[in-house]
Amino acid sequence: MERFFEFEEIERVLAKKQSKNGLTHDTGTVKSALPFNSSKVTSVFKDSFREIVGELIRYTTGKKIPAALLEDEDGFSDKPLVNKVTQGIEFDDDESEEVFIGFLEDYLYGENKKVRPLHLYLFLYIALGEKDENEKKKYARFIHEVFYEEKEEIREIFLNKETDNLLTQMIIESLPVMEENKKKQARASYSRVNQSLVNIFQQDFIYLSGKKEYFLKQFPLLLHYYVFQYILQLLLSSQSFGSYATKEVKALHFVLDWETGIGSYRDAVKDYSLVKDHAKSLFVHIHCQSHLSYHSLNKGDSREFFTYHEVLEKVLCLSEEQQQIEKKALQEWIKTYCEFAKVELPTALEEGQFTDLFRELFNCLKKGMSEEVCIKYGKNIDQVGSSVALKSRGRHGNILNLTQELFLLLCAVAVKDRKIPLKELFAQLEKRGVIFDRYSRGEAIKLLDQLNHIEKKSDSGDAQYVKPIL
């Protein structure tokens, strides 16, 4: 009879990680679920998101920045893109060249000295700065493998050079051609743990790409929101220890940016307070689920990351006799881990269901881990969300928050090109992880009405429709 759990490999990995200072934790050959760093809290997602997007698009299209653009060369401008555009132009005198270069710098970069999103294709030329370069690459690869990989339609969107703007067209045609990245594609580093949310994102992204100007301005915001929501969903599903599927989306309460007087009774305060309380457990959950990913349906030297629910689905398909054998195997692994980590063995280990044993393994891992490391890892959630969907509200600290821009963007992709009942709009937002209490719901309706996005058949809420936003 073939066994389900195969803990021998992770046992060999951890056996080598023991020292007089304790156990160094490692997930072995299981893919990562998130790109977080356990040794520090990184702010690259907040500070360098545009660079991450540039690297992401290069990953997705299989391109790399041309060597000619990275080489140092003489020129009036300190911006390589500007020098490349002006390279083939003949000027009457230096003054004319200087004026044109000044215009191009302002057109291409603006006041903040960063490449402006004049065209989606230009994102390909946004290079990674040297600071935290590896961290930015990790985030770009994570987003590519989770949200974009194996989607040819999205690749074609990124490579489309078409534009109605003659100056932008001239700039694109003047730039060095993007080179093919012939470097052998490394095997995937990340597992996709919420296919449902990814499917909704891809549908929204493809729809939005048809609204060219709006898409160019807003797709980074859409992407940023979905990455944050994906992380929240993984945390929430992990806390359930398998009682609901990771592929489901559990909506959280948000407030709207312009609301004032947010009291502690508001659901949004309670929901994100729960997230903050559980954030320090995320590192433990990642390792616990990685241990459970060592099983007979997940072999090889690059195993997928299985969530509690996915493991539970598999073991509950076994016969009653086999389930008892696997519970014993899990109990033995908990004992082995406790010996490695030198933590006290649980007293009630012989009892309970699989979910109870998952909790016991989690609790033992928690005892064997550095609390400081767990806290640092969890704080990355705030770093990802702080510039997109979090706002500090006095003594409550950060709570989930939608700006008017993000709210209308989510409404736009929820409604698309249809006219839908108001109730359906809120149902669609819920599928995207957003739910409102009655106060925020009232503010949302008021704004949509003011912007003439609501069509009233009567005063009844059942007879109100939301028109396409775009």
Topology, element by element:
Blueprint: H1 8-15, E1 18-19, E2 22-23, H2 44-47, H3 49-61, E3 63-64, H4 67-70, H5 80-86, H6 94-109, H7 133-148, H8 152-159, H9 166-174, E4 179-180, H10 195-209, H11 212-239, E5 252-253, E6 255-256, H12 267-279, H13 282-292, H14 308-315, H15 320-341, H16 354-368, H17 371-385, E7 390-392, E8 398-402, H18 404-415, E9 420-421, H19 422-431, E10 434-435, H20 438-450, E11 454-456, E12 464-466
Parallel strand pairs: 5-10, 6-8
Antiparallel strand pairs: 1-2, 3-4, 7-8, 9-12, 11-12
Helix pairs in contact: 3-7, 10-11, 13-16, 15-16
Highlighted features:
DNA phosphorothioation-dependent restriction protein DptG; 53% helix; mainly alpha; globular; Dnd_assoc_1; 470 residues; single chain
Description:
The protein is mostly helical. Among the domains are: 8-34 and 281-378, no CATH class; 38-173, no CATH class. The chain is built from 20 helices and twelve strands. The protein has helices at residues 8-15, 44-47, 49-61, 67-70, 80-86, 94-109, 133-148, 152-159, 166-174, 195-209, 212-239, 267-279, 282-292, 308-315, 320-341, 354-368, 371-385, 404-415, 422-431, 438-450, and strands at residues 18-19, 22-23, 63-64, 179-180, 252-253, 255-256, 390-392, 398-402, 420-421, 434-435, 454-456, 464-466. A three-stranded mixed β-sheet has the order 6-8-7. A three-stranded antiparallel β-sheet has the order 9-12-11. A two-stranded antiparallel sheet has the order 1-2. A hairpin with a 7-residue loop joins strand 11 and strand 12 (464-466). Helix 3 (49-61) crosses helix 7 (133-148), helix 10 (195-209) packs antiparallel against helix 11 and helix 15 (320-341) runs parallel beside helix 16. It is globular and about 85 Å long. The protein starts with 7 loop residues before the first helix and ends with a strand. The model has no long low-confidence stretch (mean pLDDT 90). This is DNA phosphorothioation-dependent restriction protein DptG. InterPro entries: Dnd_assoc_1.
